[in-house]
Amino acid sequence: MKFICEQQSLTKALNIVSRAVSNKTTLPVLQGIMINASEDGKLTLFASDSDISIQNTIDADVADSGSVLVMAKLFGDIIRKLPAAEIEIETDENNHVTIRSTNSEFNIVGSSPDEFPIMEEIIEDTESVVFDRFLLKEMIDKTAFAASKDESRGIITGVLLELQDGDLNMVAIDGYRISITRRPMPEAKTYSIIIHARILGELSRIISEIDDEESSCMLYLAEKRAVFSFSGVRAELKLMDGQFIPYQDILPGSSKITIDVNRKQLMESIDRASLLARSGKNNLVKFEISENTMTVTSDSEEGTVREDIIVNKSGDDLMIGFNANYMMDVLKVIDEDEIHILFNSSIDPCLLKSFDGNEYEYLVLPVRI
């Protein structure tokens, strides 16, 4: 194998596929990146662990086609530290890899890629849907944070993606909150899949690293895997087995108290109150809602804080407490200036909803005061 490509282009491709390199496996092949140079002038990099496989294809000047497996960390470190110039890479019959650039030459040990888990080809009649990859990233970022981080919790470490009634819904639950985002997708068929929040997060970061302005993304649904394809990148994500929690049954059907509040003001008040709340057991901040004022308070052995926020309230007065982190996580991902917050009592969860439309819903459980 022998090819020439640009250092910057190869570095970007390595940064993308390296997200699928396994750091915990005992299988050496999964600690590597497979490089394949084809006669049509394409250089394809592959990496895989048990949950996510990534393939990125870039242009190269290919003199001799072939493939080799290199250790991801060493090869990546070398390429990233080389100057922004052309790189020539060549392998011999023993899979020894020579890397040349300007005045530098590296010789490293590669291996045969025969045992590397190559992605299966997508069958033409595989279920598929087209959508905007930037929209996909936005939905992941606004949902996946609420999935459980505790691997023993099983299915709720994943995020539900469902196409239903002309909408694409993403749902995450961790036992203390629920995040739901919705976007219209009227032409897609009805289906639902569950993907681990961690690997969805990797997909979001990959999207951020792609410079291509082309926004189209294809999602193919194969047996036990979902394949996302966009801008020369193909990411294959393992699907989780099991039934997701029936989240619709958890959402309150009505509310006795509703407030409209400025999101930024509320977020900044909670942020300041949490300076003292962090000293307590539950990182507790309290909302005292009376007339058209919400008073945000927190107290600990180190002191107290109290701030008033003007709100538009309907319903009874209320005193309720929340973990500051859970509420802040939600407020950070909402874009709107004004939000609805719906309450029933001091022991029932509150629901944060979009001021216009139904693009999101966030349920947060209270802390008993």
Q: What would you say this structure looks like, in words?
A:
The chain has 369 residues and is of the alpha+beta class. It has 3 domains: 2-109, Roll (DNA Polymerase III, Chain A, domain 2); 127-248, Roll (DNA Polymerase III, Chain A, domain 2); 253-364, DNA Polymerase III, Chain A, domain 2, CATH 3.10.150.10. The chain contains 6 helices and 26 strands. It has helices at residues 7-17, 72-81, 133-143, 197-209, 263-277, 324-333; strands at 2-6, 32-37, 42-48, 52-59, 61-64, 66-71, 86-91, 96-101, 104-109, 127-132, 158-164, 167-173, 177-184, 191-196, 216-222, 225-230, 233-238, 257-262, 284-290, 293-300, 303-310, 312-314, 318-323, 338-343, 350-354, 360-364. The strands form 4 sheets. A 9-stranded antiparallel β-sheet has the order 14-11-12-13-26-25-24-18-22. Strands 6-2-3-4-17-16-15-10 form an 8-stranded antiparallel β-sheet. Strand 3 and strand 4 (52-59) form a beta hairpin.
